[in-house]
Design goal:
heterodimer; A: 3-stranded mixed beta sheet; B: alpha+beta; 2 domains; 4-stranded antiparallel beta sheet; 9 helices; 61% helix; elongated
């Protein structure tokens, strides 16, 4: 995945779900920190894991349905988003959202 | 000494890759627990993200989230739909190859996975179908960069999303 694709996914989430604040976790998050990371397992991903505000599970499901695997968005662009909750990054350090 | 029922439920689910239904769990937990107690345990585990739920009503199956989370289970079910279509019409490999070409363009960093799918597409159909639907870490990783969901109909996808939840 490229940074421009991550930006596209972020913009679509904001536009379609009227969200201005959410977290990106998982391997795609490296693109937010390093614009051109070295090619490897982290950049091989084509999906973006998104934690909605307040860990809203229904919103996470909606994101997965609208922008997730095999969605129209995925079929058109070749990359997608997956709604998850804060429980997904199980080994993240405490206070990682701060 | 037996572990508490909640722990027993987690252990039972952790050794059942296909998941278990509530009546099956009730029949295995000792000493026996009432149905409301079992619901409370399952509700608690769900709110902690420890189990994945599939299906509705009496057909509901519970999976250990440590074995398979909702996203992974959805992906597996989508790929099972794709595999069924491919088994019925092997000519659909052409559609899949086209999708694979697009994924290569969009995400060149996924080359390792694309090459593996291409080799499988060139090989015998049974091996391909087995890999698409396999429940292994390697197959799960491959499915993340898979061209096969192009074969899933919107209705099949809607059904999978309605059935599988965290």
């Amino acid at each position: 995945m490229y940074r421009s694709q991550l930006q596209h996914v972020i913009l679509e989430i904001g536009r379609r779900f009227d969200l201005s604040d959410f977290h990106i976790v998982g391997s795609a998050a490296i693109l937010a920190v390093l614009p051109n990371p070295p090619e490897g397992a982290l950049t091989a991903t084509r999906d973006v894991d998104v934690v909605p505000p307040q860990d809203d599970e229904r919103m996470a499901d909606r994101i997965s349905f609208v922008l997730g695997e095999a969605s129209e968005f995925d079929l058109e662009h070749g990359y997608c988003a997956q709604g998850v909750t804060s429980m997904t990054p199980r080994y993240a350090p405490s206070g990682w959202k701060a | 000494m037996r572990p508490p029922p909640r722990e027993q439920v987690l252990r039972l689910l952790a050794v059942e890759p296909a998941g278990l239904r509530a009546p099956e769990l009730a029949g295995l937990v000792r000493p026996r627990v009432s149905q409301p107690t079992l619901w409370r345990i399952l509700d608690g585990l769900r709110s902690e993200g420890r189990i994945t739920i599939e299906g509705r009503g009496r057909a509901t199956r519970y999976h250990s989230a440590s074995l398979i989370d909702a996203a992974t289970l959805r992906s597996l079910r989508l790929h099972q739909c794709a595999a069924r279509r491919l088994a019925g019409d092997p000519g659909l490999r052409g559609v899949v190859r086209e999708r694979l070409r697009k994924l290569r363009e969009v995400n060149p960093h996924g080359r390792v996975y694309h090459d593996r799918w291409e080799a499988l597409l060139d090989g015998p159909l049974p091996a391909l179908l087995r890999t698409i639907t396999e429940t292994s870490e390697q197959a799960e990783a491959l499915r993340k960069e898979s061209p096969f969901t192009v074969l899933v109909t919107p209705e099949e996808r809607r059904r999978v999303f309605a059935n599988v939840r965290a």
